[in-house]
Amino acid sequence: MKAFTRETSTVAYVPGVNCDTDQIIPGRFLKADRAEGYDKFLFHDIRRDAAGNLDPRFPLNRPDAQGARILLVEDNFGCGSSREGAVYALADAGIRALLAPSFGDIFFNNALKNGIVPVRLPAAVCEAVADHLAADPQATVTVDLEAAQVILPGDLGAHPITIDAFARDCLLQGLDEIEMTFTYMDRIAAFEAERMARNPWLGR
């Protein structure tokens, strides 16, 4: 997992309440080889026209969205099935953070485990960011995980990032839960040795 400390980027606004994981990546693509990248499947069925061509009206297809590593989305983003492929598609497309009033619970945790920071902001704040982006598409947002805050453009100020302390530590170090466990192997080995010394019958 790629470490996340601080990311400053332009923002692509993808509207749509209750955008579920099947919209983020249709289920038929989940058998594809992840090594070849899931980015080409991101929002596949809603960002393409009936002929399969990229629809220039879809936010991520617009020239001013190219290179954006932060998405502004709407309420209950990532709801629906628990497929981790939805997060893979976002990560493979270079997305490092998401701003929304709320997220699907499983999606929220999957994002944290794959190097993406989901930032919950009040709905009114998200609407203000959308309005600002409409007037200034090149405005940037900074997601500062070390300082646990997101810095919004213009006079929208800074807002706290609230995520689990363990998940935050994993993100800062670029370690998933298993890799983080491995950093404690010396302590685990010492504990096991001491336990066996006190209870030799366990080794019988």
Automatic annotation (TrEMBL):
Catalytic reaction(s) noted: (2R,3S)-3-isopropylmalate = (2S)-2-isopropylmalate
Keywords: Amino-acid biosynthesis, Branched-chain amino acid biosynthesis, Leucine biosynthesis, Lyase
HAMAP family, alphabetized: LeuD_type1 (MF_01031)
Enzyme class: lyase
Pathway(s) where this gene product acts: Amino-acid biosynthesis; L-leucine biosynthesis; L-leucine from 3-methyl-2-oxobutanoate: step 2/4
Protein name: 3-isopropylmalate dehydratase small subunit
A Pfam family this chain is assigned to: Aconitase_C
Record-linked InterPro entries: 3-IsopropMal_deHydase_ssu (IPR004431), Aconitase/3IPM_dehydase_swvl (IPR015928), AconitaseA/IPMdHydase_ssu_swvl (IPR000573), IPMI_Swivel (IPR033940), LeuD (IPR050075)
